[in-house]
Amino acid sequence: MDPAAIGVRIASGVVTPLIRKLFVRPGPGAGLVTEPVRIDALVSFRGERRDLAEQDVRRLVTALVRQAVRAGERPVAHDEEEALGHALARTLLALGTLTLTDVEAVSLGHEELAARLRRAAGDTTRDLSADAAHLHQRLLDTACLHILNFFTQRSTFVAHTLVEQSRRQAELIAKVDELIARDPLPGARDVAFEQRYLAYIAKKHGKLTIFGIDLTDSPGKWPLDAAYLSLTATERGRHLGDIRIGDDWGQVFEADLDPTPRPADEALATHDRVLLRGEAGSGKTTLIQWLAVSAARQDPDSGAGRMAYLHDRVPYVLPLRTLTRHGERLPAPKDFLSAVGSPLAGTQPDGWEARVLTSARALVLVDGIDEVPDAERARTRAWLSDLIEAYPGNRWLVTSRPSAVREDWLTDDDFTELTLAPMSGADVTAFIRRWHTAAATGAPDEDQALRAYEAQLLDAVRTKPDLGLLATNPLMCGLVCALHRDRRGFLPLGRKDLYTAALSMLLIRRDRERHMDVPELREEPQLQLLQRLAYWLIRNGRTAMDRTRATTIIGDALPAVPELAALGDAEAVYTHFLHRSGLLREPGPGTVEFVHRTFQDFLGARAAVEEGDFGVLAGHAADDQWEDVIRMAVAQGRPRERAELLGDLLARGDSYAEDSPARKRAHLLAAACLEHAAELAPAVREEVERRMAELIPPRTPDSARALGAVGPMVLDLLPSLADLNDDEARNAAIAATHIRSDAAIPLLTRYADDPRDGVRRQLMWGWSRFDCRSYADGVISKLDDGRTNFTLTTDEQVDELLRLDLRPKLLDIRGSVSAEAASHVLVACEPTFLVLTGRSLTHLSPAAWPTLRHLKSLGLSIDSLTDVPPGLSLPGVTELMLYPTGRDAELGDVERIPACFPQLERMHIPASWAARARALPPRLTLFSY
C-alpha cells in the first residue's frame, strides 16, 4: 500500500506513545508466550484493575485529533474537534469487544482491522461533517497501522510466525515518516518543531539551582520536581470602608475578591491574565520555570491533575532583563526565540509563533517588570498591551517586585493582581529538609553531620526570631542553610553580617575547602572589582550587562588591584569570577548578571559608600530599586558617612510636598536604616526619629493602610501599643495587618496581648492575609475573650478554631465558608451573636438550628424572610440585622417576624424596605441604612 494513501501526516513519534497507552504493559516473561493472545486481553480499559478509564481513552484520542488537525490536509472546524475526538474514541474502545487474536489481527492488515472496529462500534461518524468523517477514517487507519506494529513487537509468537508481515509493517511506517520528513505539510512542520521546542524547554527549565549546594561534591542543580516548593498567592482586595454591625465594627472589601492564599501555580487556571508581585528571592522565577516545564511535558495522562489546565499550551519564557539589556525594541512573536538566545531560533517554521498565539494555545511568561528601568516601563506595557490585543485568548503571567509598578498598572488589560505569600513556617521546614537532602553526598560521616545540622537549624528557625525573619523566601532560606553548614552550626544574626559571611564563603572558603587548583586570592581585591560591576548596573538601572562591558570595567580597574594579576588579563579575571565565585552567571550568550539582586545591591552599596556618593543614593530615595542599596550603604558606612547619608535622605524627603508619597517613603526609609546604624551621632538619630514620629503611629485608618503598603520595612518602626491611645493603637494594628508578609506575625502576636477591643477586632480581620496556622497559633489563640467578633472566611480557619479548642460566642461567617463547616462551628460554639454573610439559615444543616436558640443578635444576608426555615423560632433574638443580597430584594412576609423573633427589640433594615416595615409591631425600634 502506498504510504501517501494514509493521508494523515503524523510521524510515528507522535502516534506511537499515544497508542501504546491503550494497551497493557507486558510483565516479566510476556514475550515467552507460545499461543496467540486475544486483543480484548491486551487493552488497558476493559475488565477489572485496568490502567485507563473510558475518559482517559477519550483524553488520549483528543490529543491525537488535535495533532492531526494541526498537521492535516483537510480543515476541521474548531468546535467539531471535540465531536471528532469522541467519535474516534468510541471506535477505538471497540478493541475491547473483538474476539480476534493478535495473530489474526496482523494477518488482516490495518485497513481490515479498521473496518472491523467501525462495524463493532456502530456508526460513530453520523453526526460529523464530511471533512470530519474523512479525517476520522484516516486517523483510524493510521492508528490501526500502529496498533498492528505494536502487536508485532509485543509477542514472541507473532514475531516468529509473521516475520515477513511484521517487516512489511515496520517498513510501511518508516516510509510514512520518511514521506513526512521529505515533504511535510505546514501543520506537520509545526508539530515536528513543537516537539523539539517543548523537549528543549522541559530540559532547560527542569533543573533548579539550590543556593549553596555546590559547597561539596553535590550537584549545583536539582531536578525541579524534587526541589520545587509549592508557593501560594493572594488576591489583593481593595478596602471600601468600615461599617457598624450592631455594637461591633468591621471592614468591607470588594465582595468579588478573595484574600485566601491559593497555590500560585494554579493562578492561571482561573485567570487568563495575572500580574504576580513578589519580593526579591520570593520564587517568582522558579514559579515561571515550574509553569513552563508543566506545560512542556504535554502528557495527556496529566489531564486529571491540578496542572491539567496547561496541557496543549506552548510556553514562551520571556525574561525582561534579557529582552531590554541593550535598550532595543521589544520583540515581536517571530523574534521570541532569538530574543532569549534560544539555540532553536531560526529553525522554527516561518510564522509558527504567530500560529500558536492565534490559536490561543500560548502560555506567555513575562518575568521581571521591576528589572526594566523606570523610563522603559511604559514602553514595555505598550508592547504587552499590543500583544494581548493582537492575540486574545492566550494565558499571560507577568511578574514584578511589589512596588515597581502601581496597583492598577495592567488593570485596563484585565489583569488580576496576585501577591506571592512569604514562606510559612511549614514551607521553611520543608525547604530546609529538601535542601539538606539535596546536599547529601553519600559519604556516611558527612551525611550524618548534615542530618545533625538539619535538626539544629530547624530548631533554631523555630526558636530564634531574628533568624526566622531572615528565612522568609527561598533565596534567604538557601543562604541560611548554606552558611549554617559552612560554619558548622553557627550563624550571623544581622543582614549585613549574613551577606558578609556569604561573600566570604563564596569567594574564599568554597574553593579552598573543595581543594580547587586556583591561585590563592584575598577577599578584598575580589570585592573591589565585583562591587564596580554591581554599582555600574545599579547606576544604569540594569540587572544585566554585556560581557564586553564587564571585561572593560574589570580591565580599567585591574591596574589599581595588582593582586589579581595572578589570574591574567581582564578576560581571565572575568572567567574566574564567572566560574569560581558563584556570584556571577551568564543568562544568555554575551550577557552577565549577579546570581541574585540582593548581592548586586549589597556590593553596589559598598561601592557607593567608598565613592562617597551619598547625594546619588539620597536622590533615589523614592525609587524602590534603590531601597536595599541605601539600607546596606548605611550598614556598611562609618559613623560620619552614615550621618551624612541619613541627613541627605531627610533633606530629600523634605523637598517633596507635604502629602507626597515620595516624602513619606524617604523619611520612612531613613527611619528603617536606623537598625543598621550601630553607631550614629545622637542629633542625627533624633532628627530621623522626629520625622518618623510624624508618620508613626498613623493618625487615621487610611494613613495606616498606606503605611502598611510600604511593606516589611515598617515592621521595625511600628511601636509597642502600651503608650498609645485607643485610636493610635487601632491604627497601628491596621498598619501591621496590611503588611503582606508573615514576618509581621511576631509583632502581631505581641499586639494580641493588648486588651482593647479596637485592636483585637483588627487583628481578627487580618487573619486571611497571613499563613492560616501560624497566625492562629500566635494571634487568634489570644482573642477569644467573649468580646471579639470572630470573622471566618475559609474552612481552614474553622478547622484552626476547633483545633485550638476556641469557642467564641460572637461569630461572623462569610459566604466563602462551606455550609458544612459553618454548621460544624455553630454546633461547637453555640454563639450569642451571629452574622451570616452570603447565605441564609436554610443553607445550614438542621443539626445547627437548635444551637441558634442561644442567639441574642442575628445578622442575615437574605432576599426576604422566606429564607428563614419554616417553623423556626428564635425567642432569644432581640436584635435583627437584614442585608439584602440583590437589588430586587424586598422585606416580604412581614407578618412572620413576630412569630420567628417574639422578643425582638431592634431591627436594622435598608431604607428601601421602610414602607413595608410599617406593618411591624410598634414596640420595635427600627434603624435604616
Architecture overview:
The chain is an alpha/beta fold and 929 residues long. Among the domains are: 3-184, no CATH class; 207-421, Rossmann fold (3-Layer(aba) Sandwich); 789-929, no CATH class. The protein is built from 39 helices and 21 strands. The strands form five sheets. The protein has a seven-stranded mixed β-sheet. A seven-stranded parallel β-sheet has the order 15-16-17-18-19-20-21. Strands 12-14-13 form a three-stranded antiparallel β-sheet. The relative contact order is 0.05.
Could you provide a short overview of the structure?
This protein is α/β, with parallel strands linked by helices and 929 residues long.
CATH topology of the domain at 207-421: Rossmann fold
What is the end-to-end distance?
82 Å
Strand content: 5-15%
- Separate helix tally: 39
Strands of the biggest beta sheet: in what spatial order? 6-3-11-7-10-9-8
| Number of beta strands | 21
Helical proportion, percent range: 40-55%
Instruction: Specify the structural class.
Output: alpha/beta
Taking all residues together, what is the mean pLDDT?
79
By oligomeric state, this entry counts as single chain
CA-atom Rg in angstroms = 33 Å
Largest sheet: 7 strands, mixed
- Show unreliable segments: 1-7, 27-33, 212-219, 237-258
